[in-house]
Amino acid sequence: MSKVGIPHTLAYFIYFPLWKTFFEELGMEVVVSPPTTRAILDWGVETAVNDACIPIKLYHGHVAFLRDKVDYIFIPRLVSVRKHGDFGTETFCPKFLGLPDMVRLAVNDLPTMIDVRVDLKKGRSELSNVARHIGLQLGKSWKEVKRAQHKALSVHSQYKKLLGQQILPPRAMEILFGEKGKETMGEEQELTIAVVGYPYAIYDHYINGGLLDILSREKVGVLTQDMLSDRVLNREAYKLPKSLFWYFSNRAVYGALHFMDQQAVDGIIHVTAFACGPDSIVDRLLEIEARHRRMPYLSVVIDEHTGEAGVRTRVEAFMDMLRFRKEGQR
Amino acid sequence: MKISFPHMGYSPIAFKWLIENMGHECIVPPEPSTKTLDLGVRYAPEFACIPFKILMGTYLEVAEQGAQVIITSGGMGPCRAGLYWVMHQYILDELGKDVKVMAFEPPLCDLRDFRKKLRWIRKTGGLGVKEFIEVLKTTWEKVKALDDVEMRSHELRPYEINRGDTTRTLWKAVDFIDAANTVEETVQARREGLQLLEQIPRDNGRNPLKIGIIGEIYVVLEPAANHYIQVLLGEMGVQTDRSIYLTSYTRKNTIVNLEGDVFAVAQPFLGEAPIGGHGVNSIGETILYARHGFDGVVQLAPFACIPEIVAKSILPSVSKEYGIPVLTLFIDEQTGKAGVQTRLEAFVDLLEKRREARLKQGPERLVV
């Protein structure tokens, strides 16, 4: 059975169940790199261009981890997943667009790369084209591909349903694939905080200094934009003079606006990477919108040197402020 | 109506004329200075790129001088420049400035909005359609003339005998164009300007190094942002060719336009185009400069510019395959002129050594 490697970062947190099911239905063994470690980060810093942001460096690191363990490596070129935005040109960050080329030229001794171009804004049939393209590269028949695609999509919608029940992606994946994990439900929660930002910044435990763990220890309920359905998110679009150009950024902004206007949360934490291009806009936009709505707002910047202590100090200070505020309101 | 716009190279001369002749009052943006950058850095987001910060500073300066409307460009992404106006407006509002940022989105994206805004400007200025077209034509001619004299100055500077002659003459030529009021006068001014440049005493025996300048449009076009890199190089005795001019796409005589599709040239290295900004162009243009026998390429980009980072990660492979050295300069508010100059001098030394080595091996290796 040939093995296909999937790096544990970037779009992994949203699309992994889909990809895993698809490849497994095609008779492949899926190998995932472990959650980020110091070694993976170091590999990434070593191989990637020095000006890249931390998520891109991490991606290089995860690919470097996988390269000698698999026959294929899945590095899709994510161009668009829907037609959206003022001119219908929504896309991903330019670094996503150039990612397969960046990785190919930076990491040596790569296994065969599955760098299919995913550009779904063109129409409904485009997804089948993407699937067929992968099938061709792996030498699978049209029928097999069709069945795998169907199965994968149904798993993906189950996954989205789980997220919709306010379950965080890592836990949702455990439930979906029938693994045992610790139950965290039923604890008393003092506060609710919306954590918005890119999935690969929020859910990567190592790189954000364990932000979500810190929050759960502080007895805080966490909501993220990925727990909202597309319909709910897109309703927020009209609140901006011009929607952003990037899929994940739009989700983060819409999610934050939704949480602010519902007043369903006590505060908002935006997780952003050092020198992230799109976030230079997103962060200031949210800061201003939050101020207009008198919503407490904290921006956590992560980079290669982010440590747990630094994140914890800031989060604790933020929490104290929220508690004071809540008492004052009573 | 008091109208202003972003400062970019010599273009304010043409746009000032345009706005004044449409019947508005023009607040000419000052050339970006330390004060501009300080203002911009204070109010712009920390990780915004340097063009955003400079424009922020410029807008605050012209707002101080009473500008009511700022005309700028929009965009369809994925480069964040298309969202500048949104953020600038947010921040100006936050600071309580009564300025409206009016962005022209690409007409291909939203033709109705484009026409609506054009109409608004024309009507509030009190101009008829015919006069308006006439004014636009002259402005266009001016932009072209400005680009022409500037382009020629960069070709001639390495040959000048008295250092600084070319730059001083360029100012004169620019003044001629500034004074012109019709298409004919502009053509005449352009001719006179070029003649003046030709008359500069020069040493034609020199064989200057040739360097291509590529990168992000704003830092390439705005000398105040790139520390007058072309003048610096020119006075070191290097001939420079710039990949981007405001009127680039109408030209047939520049290297970058000679070979048609830059995206197709870049295709073997980057399988996706466009990726926003001038990312793909930077890769394609490096290849073109190598093919045309240039000695080296300087890539200019703002710190944290996403498309240029993608390009930078790919350029080492291009450089290796085509044998052309590339120097990348990421520019931010901390960049100082001395730093730029030191690195350029080292780069030029390297190119000279390289040329010497190649000449020793025999002339046939010079042909790429």
Task: Describe, in plain words, how this protein is organized in 3D.
By secondary structure, chain A is of the alpha/beta class. Chain A has 14 helices and ten strands. The longest helix of chain A has 23 residues. In chain A, helix 1 runs antiparallel to helix 7. Chain B has three domains: 126 residues, Rossmann fold (3-Layer(aba) Sandwich), CATH 3.40.50; 64 residues, no CATH class; 159 residues, 3-Layer(aba) Sandwich (Rossmann fold), CATH 3.40.50.11900. The model of chain B has no long low-confidence stretch (mean pLDDT 91). The longest helix of chain B is centred in the middle third of the chain and has 28 residues. By secondary structure, chain B is α/β, with parallel strands linked by helices. In chain B, strands 2-1-3-4 form a four-stranded parallel sheet, sandwiched between helices. A four-stranded parallel sheet of chain B has the order 6-5-7-8, with helices on both faces. At the A-B interface, helix 4, helix 5 and helix 13 of A face helix 4 and helix 14 of B.
Question: How are the secondary structure elements laid out?
Answer:
The complex is a heterodimer of chains A (330) and B (368).
Chain A: E1 3-6, H1 12-25, E2 29-32, H2 38-47, H3 54-66, E3 72-74, E4 77-80, H4 94-97, H5 99-106, E5 112-114, E6 117-119, H6 126-138, H7 142-164, H8 169-176, E7 191-197, H9 199-202, H10 211-217, E8 220-224, H11 230-234, H12 247-262, E9 267-273, H13 277-292, E10 297-302, H14 308-329
Parallel strand pairs in A: 1-2, 1-3, 3-5, 4-6, 7-8, 7-9, 9-10
Chain B: E1 2-4, H1 12-21, E2 25-26, H2 34-43, H3 50-64, E3 69-73, H4 84-94, E4 100-104, H5 111-125, H6 129-156, H7 165-179, H8 183-198, E5 209-215, H9 217-221, H10 229-235, E6 238-242, H11 255-258, H12 262-266, H13 279-291, E7 296-302, H14 306-322, E8 326-331, H15 337-360
